[in-house]
Amino acid sequence: MSTLARIAVENTVYHFDKLFTYLVPEELYKTVRPGVRVTVPFGAGSRERVGMVFDLDGQEGEGIKTVLSVLDREPVLDREGLGLALWMKNRYYCTLFEAVKLMIPAGLHFRLKDSYVLSAGFTDFDRENYDGLSWQIIMALRSHGRAMPMEKLSAALGITRDCPEFKALQAGGVVCRVNLAMNRVKDAVSKMVRPIPGFDGRLTPRQREVYGVLCDVGEVSEKELCYFTGASPAVVKALCEKGAAEVFQYEIYRRPEALAAEEDNDDLILSESQQKALEELTEEYENAREGSRCALLYGVTGSGKTSVYLKLIDHVLAKGRGVIVMVPEISLTPQTLRRFQSRFGDQVAVFHSGLSLGERMDEWRRVRQGRARIAVGTRSAVFAPVQKLGLIVIDEEQEHTYKSEASPRYDAREVARYRCARSDAFCLLSSATPSVETFHMAREGRFRFHKLEDRFGRAVMPEVQLVDMNWEDHPGSEHAVGMALGEALIENFRRGKQSIVLLNRRGYHTFASCRSCREVVSCPNCSISLTYHTANRRFMCHYCGYSAPLMKKCPSCGSEGLAFRGLGTQKAEEQLRELLPKARILRMDTDSMSGRYSLERSLHEFARGEYDVMVGTQMVAKGLDFENVTLVGVISADQTLYSDDFRSGERTFDLLTQVVGRAGRGRLPGRAVIQTFAPENPVLGLAAKQDYFGFAERELAYRKAMLYPPFVDLLVIGFVGGDEKLTRRSAERFLQELEGLARGEYAGLPLRVLRPSPAAIARVSGKYRYKLIIKCQNGPRFREMIARLLTAFAGLREFRQVTVYADPNPNRII
Ligand code: ADP
Ligand code: ZN
Ligand code: ZN
C-alpha cells in the first residue's frame, strides 16, 4: 500500500511547478487515485489548494505535507490525459495544472468552491429546535440567499467544515453542499458576461478571483457566473465599471441541438472521386498502427470533403471506436455542425465556448461515459475525453484558431497528432488551402495525400476577375464598390441571384484623425488607433477594451476638426444600398451579430432567400454553402497582404480562395470580382486562378530562402512590463543568457536568434512589449534549454516586474 502521491497543484508559477509529493492519510487510501482531484496544503502558509493526483509514488522527505480531502469519486482524467498534461508542460512551457484545466470542463472546476445552501425543502425555521451555533449557520445561509462559500461562513461565524454542528446540519439534510447535479442553472439566458483580456488595473481579491474565472471560461451568463463563484451581481458590475469585463445580450440562447435540421444523410452516395478517397482513407485507417497515422485530404471548395469524412466516421464507429471532429469556429460552420447532428444524432457532443457551463459539463460527461462517441467542436474539443479514440478530423486545418494565443499556448493540431500516436488513432487533416507546413509534410511523404480536384456534382469552379482599382474614376476615394463590381452586383440582383461581398478588414475599421495636427486618435494605453463604433457611438480599443465617447475636439491639439477615415462594414452597407436601392442587404460583422444564434438565424434567413446581398468581414468568407449565391465580391484584397508577418501571403491566399469558393456551389456557375490596388501581386494572381499548388510551391521557396517554418521552428519569447527600459533590458539579458548556454552546455543545437525588438504593437494596456525571435529545431534538448532559461530568469530579482513567456510557432510574430 502506497502512502505517497505525486500531485500537480493549482496556481503555481512555471518556474516553481512540478509534481509535489504528499502523504496520503489512511482514511483516504481507497479514494486517492491517479486522475482524482484533491485538496492539499501548499506553500509557506499551507493554504488549501486544489491538486490533481498523477501517480501514487514519490520520495519521503522532510516536512512532507498530507492530503486534506478528495474531491472526485471517480477519476476525471485517465492515464492518457495525465500523460498529455506532462507532454504539454514540456512542449508549451505551462504549468501542469494549467494543462489539466484544459481537459476538464470549467463547471467541474468551480464545484470545488466549497459552497453551501439551505436545502430546497427546508422549512423548519423554529429557533427552539437548534443550538445557538446551528441557528446562526441557518440564518447566515438564509440571509445570504445564494450558495455561500465556506470561507465566508468561516469569516462570519468562525466555523470550519469539520465543526460538529455544521456536520450535523449536513447529515440532517438542512444544509447541503452545492453540487451541480442538484441545482443546474438552465434557462433562456440573456445577460452574458465576458472578460476584457489583459486587464491590469486594480481589483479587490474577490473581483480578481471572479476575473480569473471569467478569463478561464470566456463568455458566460451572469447568472451562472454568480452561481459558480458565489459572487454577487455587484461584483460583476464592479468588474464592468473598472473595464475588466463587459456585459452583453444574447438575443436567444438555445441548445445547439434545438437547431438540428430536418435533413437526413442516410442515403449519402459518394461521387467517384469521393469514393476513391474514402477507400484509400479507410485502408490507411485500418493500417494506422503500422503506417503513417496522419493524412491530408486536399479538396477544392465545394468538393464535398465533409461527405468523405462522414462516411469514414461510419466506419470508425462500426469498429467500436470514437471520433473527434475539429472545426475552426463554431459560428462559422453551423451548416457543418448540422450535418453531423442530423446524421449521428445523440452520438454527437458539442464543445465550444458558446455553451453554458452546465451544458459544457453535460457534454463532457456524455463523452467521458461513452454515451456520445463523436465530439465536434473548436480548439478545445481536442481534449474531449472520447473513449477508444479512433479518429481525429481537423477541418480547414490551416486556420489560426487552432493555435491558442494565451497560456497554455498549445497548437491543437499538434495535440491531435500526439493523442493519435498514443491511442493508435488516425488523424485526418482536411482543407482547400492546407497550410504550407502541412503541404510540405505531405509532399515529403510524411503524411498520405488525397485529392478531390473537382466540385461535387455538376458545379464548376467560379470564374475570377481581378480589378485594378488604380484606374477607377476616383482613386483613393473611399468608395467601396468600383465599377466592375457594381455592375456585376446589379446584374446578379436583376437575375434574382444572391451575392456575398467581403470587406477584407479585420473587424470594424473607422478611425479619426485631426485635420490640423494630423494626429490619429489613439488609445492612451496602447500604441494603436482607436476604432469608432457607430452602434454605441464610442471610440474603442480592440486590445485593452478602453473606450471613450465620441469627441468633437482633437485630444492632441484641441482643434475642432476630426475627420473619420477608413471603411467600415456599415459604410459599405450604405454604399450598397445606394447602388441597389431595392435589394435586401444583410450586414454581418461582430457588431450586428452579437450572439451566436443571431448569426445562425441570419444565415437561415439568407438561405431561405430573404436577402439578396450579404456584406461583412471575414465572417462571410468561410464555410458557408448557399446554392443560390453566384457572385462574390471582394472589396480591397490588399489588406491582409501587407501586414508585416511571414504568413501574410498565405492568409491572403486562403481568404480569397475560401471566399471565392462561396460562389457557384449549386447548379449555376459562379463568378468573383476581386478589387485590388496591387493587381500584379503574384499571390493575388494565383488566388484568382485558384492555383493552390502554384501558390504552395512559391510560398515554400520563399519560406526556405527566408528560413521560416516549415524549414525551421520558431519560438518567440515575449517580454511584458510597465517600464520600457527595464523591459528592453530584460530581453537583452535573456538573449545574453541564451547565448551563454548555446555556446556552452548546449553547443551544437541549430539555432538562430534575432536581436530583441519591440513588438508590432509596442504598448498594450499600458505595458511595453518586446520580443525575441528564435529560429530553431524544436527538439527535447532545445526545450530543456528554454525551460531552464525561463526558470532561471524568473529568479532574477532585477526583472521581477517583467513577465516573460515563450510561444512556440505562433500564428504571427507579434
Ligand atoms: P467542401 O467542404 O469540400 O467545400 P461540402 O462538404 O460543403 O464541400 O460540399 C459541397 C456541397 O456538395 C454541399 O452542399 C454538399 O451537401 C454537397 N455534396 C457533397 N458531397 C455530396 C454527396 N456525396 N451527395 C450529395 N451531396 C453532396
Ligand atoms: Zn489635432
Ligand atoms: Zn488600448
UniProtKB/TrEMBL annotation:
Pfam name, any one: PriA_C
Helicase C-terminal domain: residues covered: 549-701
GO biological process, one term: double-strand break repair
Residue ranges of domain Helicase ATP-binding in the record: 286-452
UniProt GO MF annotations: 3'-5' DNA helicase activity; ATP binding; DNA binding; hydrolase activity; zinc ion binding
Catalytic activity: Couples ATP hydrolysis with the unwinding of duplex DNA by translocating in the 3'-5' direction; ATP + H2O = ADP + phosphate + H(+)
GO CC term, one of those recorded: primosome complex
Residues where Zn(2+) 1 binds: C514, C517, C554, C557
Names of required cofactors: Zn(2+)
PROSITE patterns: HELICASE_ATP_BIND_1 (PS51192), HELICASE_CTER (PS51194)
Segments crossing the lipid bilayer: none
PANTHER family given in the database record: PRIMOSOMAL PROTEIN N
Its job: Initiates the restart of stalled replication forks, which reloads the replicative helicase on sites other than the origin of replication. Recognizes and binds to abandoned replication forks and remodels them to uncover a helicase loading site. Promotes assembly of the primosome at these replication forks.
Protein name, UniProt field: Replication restart protein PriA
Originating species: Acutalibacter muris
